[in-house]
Structures are given as C-alpha cells and as structure tokens.
# Entry
Amino acid sequence: MDDSSESAKEGIRDSVRQGYARIAGGGESCCSQGGSCCGPGSPKGLATALGYDETQLAGLPDGANMGLSCGNPTAIASLQPGEIVLDLGSGGGFDVFIAGRKVGPAGRAIGVDMTPAMLSKARRNIEAYRRNTGLDNVEFRLGEIEHLPVADASVDVVISNCVINLSPEKPQVWREIARVLKPGGRVSVSDIALLKPLPEAAQSSVEALVGCVAGAALVDETKEMVRAAGLIDAEFELKSGYVDSMADWSDPVFRELAHHFPAGTRPSDYVTSLSVTARKASKQ
# Structure
C-alpha cells in the first residue's frame, strides 16, 4: 500500500479523533456540539427514540450517554449473564455500562476507543457505575477497531453503535471482529450505511464524516465485508425511518448534507440505519 493511501487513512482517523475529543472535552452531548448522530432535544430523547428503555437508562453515570447512537445493539444482541461482550468505539461508555448490567458479576463488558479523551471520560465513570450497580465488571482499552487490543477467540459477543462507518479500513474491522469472537460467538452492530453514493460535495464534509455519514459504506458493500470475514448466518435490517426522523429533528449533520442533495430528495434516499447480526462458526 502506498504512502499516500496510508496518509489519507490517518487523516480520516485524525479528523474523527479530534471531533470526538471536542465532544468529550466539552462535557456536552454531540447534539449541542453540532456534529453528531443525534435527535430530539437531548441524548436521553434520542436513546428513547431508538428503543432504549427507562430501565436501561436509569442509573447510568453522568455523561455516559452523549447522543452518539444510531441503534440499540445491546438489545439485539440478547446478552446473557456470564458472557464477555466487546463494544467497538465505546465513547463515554454508554453501551458498555448497559451491557455490564446485563452480563452480571460473572460476565465482563470491554470497551475499545481510539480517542484518549473519550477513554478518560469512560474510565472516570467506572466508579459511579460500581456504586450504582455493585458490579466490578467493566473496563476500557485504548485502541483502534482495526487492530483490537483483544486476544483471539476470547469474546462471546461484539457490539458496535454508529462507529464502523467511521473507519477507513472497514474490511479489516470485520476481520478483527471474526478474530476475537469465540467459536459460535455473535456480532450485533447498528451502523449508518448508504443506499447509493453520496453527492461528491457531501463526501468532503468533515462535519458529515464525524456525524457518521460521509464515511459510510454502501449496504451491499457491508454485506460483502461481513461474509468475506467468514461470519455466517448474517442478517441485515434497513431502518431508513431513523434517518427521516433525524432530518425532521433538524440534526446539524443532515442540515449540512441537505445543501448537497438534489432537489426533491430526502436523506433517506441516500442514507439508512443498518442493523447487522451474524455469528462465527462453531467449528473452524
């Protein structure tokens, strides 16, 4: 791979890292920062709209929910007590803390994030999580999702919420997911995907990139990446209604993108929320 290609990938990572560092450092949700997958008025409002219930949201450490979601992978994953779950791009720890309660004292929830400011925020929240739950079963590791700091075949479930679309090496992410899963382990991802290529002007918008859109892959490309990684029983569910809701809520990313869409089109003509479930074969 040539140096220019590697430089471009690092440039994307730096843009994402800087954008999310600003969100973490501001002590605010991405809604108020203006570059997010965010919704009706508050991070809690978005979470509720996406299907998180009051029980899941109750008792979360302050600041763990920053409105960075585009789905509810922990619900889809049907986590069981005693399982080890890994969250890719864990941010302030929102899904990790929810997952930790579901897997209980015999299980473990691990978050990986490449943004030091997000990692620090999540780690500061661990003590509040312990006080609220009595559990000591979560941890956060610094790393890139293309090179997970996790041992081979050590995880029961991989989840990710609106993150893989930000990676400049998505096939590598899916290979890493397959590597860390135990035989028979499963993956449940909520992500942003494209139904057709975005207009060129939208592709160059850093705000749209950090907001989970411009870096997204086509739905068909995602299907191929999942299968090429060796995962089986893959299912893909499109939820374009989420994108229309984002536009109706006047999300800043979709306001930005609207300037680049042809007249008479809606964001959901190009963009969808995509739920992906799959598993690793029991015998390799």
Notes: Residues 81 and 240 are 32 Å apart (CA to CA). The longest helix spans residues 3-26. The radius of gyration is 18 Å.
